[in-house]
């Protein structure tokens, strides 16, 4: 169990890596910016911010106001601080109340009324509802990463660059003063599909709303940096490691990193100019491996943990979790749903993986987050595939993650001190078990608890002995 010192350290981490959980923090929610070293996010007053996201893609269109509060409250309590949402899933988008977003499906003509969500329920419209969600999220200390328009209508030729510019101007004017907005251009699409639209949206948002970060959400197995790394509007890189397992990749896939999402991080971490990087869509909990065939095995909590620890320890500035039923807000009466969904959103918010994500943030933020770097030189003997070990460290601490609980041969001497105190951190429950104190030299083999198998994941924690 955590001792008093660990509890105190984790309490401090909640302030260091801003989470938006207290009333005082809610009132002082500040826009995000990129740190001076280009590796992570900060609030505008300079406090490091660790992104722990959830994919609530259809939040604006599928949930009532009451359901919205239920969902946001749950995600806040579970430690999430960013919700990824589609503003327009399609040009025919309408909310749960039947309010359409657009006039004649033209993104250049948003359908607004003279009333608003606070004073006139008769005139309550699609954009008033978006306003409501943005406001409620801010009150609860949550940021919204908003996708202006999803990739599919753009790829289908239903959005022109001219109309996209008009629409982006509308969004920027409406939400530039909201403290909790992040813009997520694209939407499960290659940047080369509709390039003029994406460039127009990115440039317009940057010009008219310079106070909010902008990224690009690409298709599976690709990275925003494939097209936009040097774009002035791209504040940070995002990749989608996707929903396939190793043997489901084919030669037609652009990237051959497979499930090794840490390789995407490595690629972007070493690009110039330096920009933060994050896995914005790994395999969802409760979705078939390969996405489309429900006969295939479904991804589980152990898998979302692996993606999280691998990518963050490789240098990512945070991590986005997702659940099949939650991302589509699957409800009773919806019929079969898509992607073999087997649960309803109000049950799926309590899936094991969702409750375990906070332990990743708590661990990372329990040490000096701002000084952390990836460092594979800690690992004397690495493995391939699920046997891969991923290491990160500061000056006086190091973390090494094993997904299978395999023995860790560690090169000592990479952190300060003549001795180190070692412990095992359990990603399933956030508990720490001390191992002992060791000389900080040579190679030491650490044997994680339990049987070596997939999902018996552990983090080796080493701290310098002062």
Automatic annotation (TrEMBL):
Residue stretches making up the Putative collagen-binding domain: 373-463
Glycoprotein keyword on record: no
Domain Apiosidase-like catalytic positions: 35-369
Keywords annotated in UniProt: Hydrolase, Signal
GO molecular function term, any single one: hydrolase activity
Signal peptide interval: 1-24
Protein name: Glycoside hydrolase family 140 protein
Species this protein is from: Chitinophaga rhizophila
